[in-house]
Every structure is written in C-alpha cells, then in structure tokens.
Amino acid sequence: MTVSRVSGWDLHCHTVFSDGTKTPTELIELAHAAGLEGVAISDHDTIAGWQEAKAAAQAKHFPLIRGTEITAEHLHTSVHILAYLYDCEDKGVLDMYAKMRQRRYERAQRMVERLSHDFPITWQSVSEQVREGEATTIGRPHIADALVSAGVYKTRSDAFAGAINGKSPYYVPVDSLAATQVIFALKQAGGVVVLAHCGAVKRNRRRMLTDDDIELFAREYGLDGLEVYHRENSREQQERLSAIAQKLGLLQTGGSDWHGEGKPNVLGENRTDTSTVQEIIRRGRIRLIN
Ligand SMILES: [Zn+2]
Ligand SMILES: [Zn+2]
C-alpha cells in the first residue's frame, strides 16, 4: 500500500500505557496510515510503552522517537514536560520515576477512598480498569472508567466533568516534582526537553508560566524547546511562545496530544517540521527507531 506523505511529525501521543485508548502498535499503524513522516510516543510519566512501540516501528520501518510527558510544577503552576530520546536507565531518571509513581499511587488511593463513601467503586474496581497491568500508572482516567462501569456516568468525559473534576470535593491534587528538578534529571540523561502546551490558558487559570519562568528553564537548566503548535495554545499564545522561542534560541514543536478515542484530538492535527525533528535526533542520547 502506498501512503501519501504529509510533511512533519506528531511529537505528542498517548497510548494505553497512560490514558490513551490505543496500543503503541496501533499508534505506529495509524501514524503510518495517516502519512506522517514519523511519530513520538509520549505517555504520561512512563516509558512502559517504548518496547512495544519500538518493535512495531521496526516491523513497519516507520520512524519513531521514544519520549515521555512528565507532570511537574513550578510556583504552583502545573508544567507538562515532553522529553525525547533520553537514557531511561540513567540513575537520576529511575529515581525520579520511582518518586512520581509513589505519589500518584497514593493520590489515586485517597481519591478512591473519598469517592467510595458516595459511589459504588472500590480500589479493586479501579484496578480492573487498567489495561496493561502493572506497567500503567493508575490515575484519574481509570477512576473515571470505574465510575462508568459502575453505571454512575455514561462516558469517561462525563466523569471528568463530574466527581473526578479538579473542582470536585472528591478531588485530591498530586504533589508533582519541581519542573527544574525534572528538567535537570532529563537533561543529565541526555534528553531533549520541551515544555508542552504552556500557553493553554484553561489548564492554569490562576497562573501561567511567565516569559521569565521559561527563560529560567532555558538559561539555567538547558530547556531545548517549546511545544508551540498545540490545540490548547490559542493563536495569541502561539505567537507569544514563538517569539520567546526565537528570542531564546529554542526549538518550536507541534503535537496533537492524541489519546485515541479518549479525547477528540486527531493524530497529526499539529506537527513538528522535519528540520526541527532532525535537530532533536541530533541532540538526543538514544537513537531514532526506523
Ligand atoms: Zn499535557
Ligand atoms: Zn499529553
């Protein structure tokens, strides 16, 4: 089958190894069918999907960048950090992941405990929603799915709008690691580090990352780039981020934040150009799969 190529790569994709609905193999197949030049896997806070994605990419000879989207915080602002092509066996990275898993696990347990007073769910019923067993980070999507399967809500989105919403009394925030600490660890491990959707107003109504915050990450911690092209960055924010990137000499990336059927985002709806991807590959410590 010949597929006509559309220019660019989608560098922001989630699979069942975090809160997406498709497997890494399906990601590779769909990215290939969509005619993308290549794709990055970037599940939340895990590398658990890398192995399957690598095997699928090699089988199809489809270019794959292995990455992760890590949740962190800076001055009470939530910061999502995309890291590509880093050494996942680096000691600092392993320690960082162990700390994060523990915090997320405890938070999910506290939320389920609160919810169980008013809804027919248990830790057991939430655990049953995890698609790939131990490898997945249990989080709000799984609690949402447990509420759906208990008949409380029709869809995962309804649950996100209801009891597990950030404003709900059942909500428990996760204590994220400091963004500076996360960027430092990933840079030490040879990663190429990009701030995801940092112009998304809805995600941080109280405080967004300022130009100075971004400058600090770039000058003191070695931040490589900004995800300028993302559906949640408004046109004005894209212009702002692009100007900051030019001023600081940062890479400008784009990604769909695809979650399969879990969200309306379409694979490849935002992309990163070929020359930027080549620079990412040049900087990264581990190799491109193709
Ligand atoms: Zn994100
Ligand atoms: Zn994402």
From TrEMBL:
A Pfam cross-reference name: PHP
Spans through the membrane: none
Coiled-coil regions listed in the entry: none
SUPFAM superfamilies: PHP domain-like (SSF89550)
Domain Polymerase/histidinol phosphatase N-terminal: 9-74
InterPro entries assigned to the protein according to its UniProt record, in alphabetical order: PHP_dom (IPR004013), PHP_domain (IPR052018), Pol/His_phosphatase_N (IPR003141), Pol/histidinol_Pase-like (IPR016195)
SMART domains on file: POLIIIAc
PANTHER family xrefs: EXONUCLEASE, POLYMERASE_HISTIDINOL PHOSPHATASE N-TERMINAL DOMAIN-CONTAINING PROTEIN
Protein's UniProt name: PHP domain-containing protein
Lineage: Bacteria, Bacillati, Actinomycetota, Actinomycetes, Bifidobacteriales
